[in-house]
Specification:
seven-stranded mixed beta sheet; 7 helices; Rossmann fold; 7 strands; binds 5-O-phosphono-beta-D-ribofuranosylamine
């Protein structure tokens, strides 16, 4: 069975990448195959997770490249060499250019740790998202998988999963619950759905 070739872009610990790798191993990600991981930050543990799973792991330091253009030129070359057909942003912190997202229209998906349109957009990433949710006093938060376009966290929503906010939650405790109960479940399922829909559309 032909599978959609997936490149996963990371910046940090890689727990969302790990959820995808585990799903692939458990045959819950059957319509896609992770063929490449790229980190824009040196030393991201996510790359170690990829190596342990036998997946090619590439570091393209965003700062070392100097400009976004130079970074994206190297990224494009790596994606082409790997024959990537779908990009998954999993804890990836760089903002891709409008040109790049246009060239990859509806072929980049992202996991965001809130129920978009709440607590998203420029400046909302990592713990900051959960700090804002707690400051606002929401009783429910969660995670969203969406297509990536030129607006940060602005693309079409693919899937969402809600998580309860508990009294006394710290940002760290809430982040952990959102990861465990939403992100790590939602992302592999959403990637499988997107890949399967693409395969079914192939004439
Ligand atoms: C998590 O908060 C995730 O929601 C966001 O990036 C953070 C780190 O993710 N997308 P990971 O552990 O590197 O996958």
């Amino acid at each position: 069975m032909n599978k959609i070739r997936i490149a996963v872009l990371v910046s940090g610990g890689g727990t969302n990448l790990q959820a995808m790798l585990d799903a692939e191993r458990r045959r819950e990600l059957e319509s896609g195959q992770i063929v490449l991981t790229v980190s824009d930050r040196p030393g991201a543990y996510a790359l170690e997770r990829a190596r342990q799973a036998g997946v090619p792991a590439l570091e393209i330091g965003r700062k070392a490249c100097g400009s976004r253009e130079a970074f994206e030129e190297r990224l494009r070359a790596a994606l082409a060499e790997a024959g990537a057909e779908l990009i998954v942003l999993a804890g990836f912190l760089s903002i891709l250019s409008p040109e790049f997202t246009r060239d990859w229209d509806r072929r980049i998906i992202n996991i965001h740790p809130s129920l978009i349109p709440s607590f998203c957009g420029a400046g909302f990433y990592g713990l900051k998202v959960h700090e804002a949710a707690l400051a606002r006093g929401v009783k429910v938060t969660g995670a969203t998988v969406h297509y990536v376009n030129e607006i940060p966290d602005g693309g079409e929503i693919i899937a969402q999963k809600a998580v309860e906010v508990l009294p006394g939650d710290t940002p760290e405790a809430l982040q952990r619950r959102v990861m465990e109960q939403a992100e790590w479940i939602l992302l592999p399922r959403a990637v499988e759905t997107v890949c399967r829909e693409r395969i079914e559309r192939i004439p």
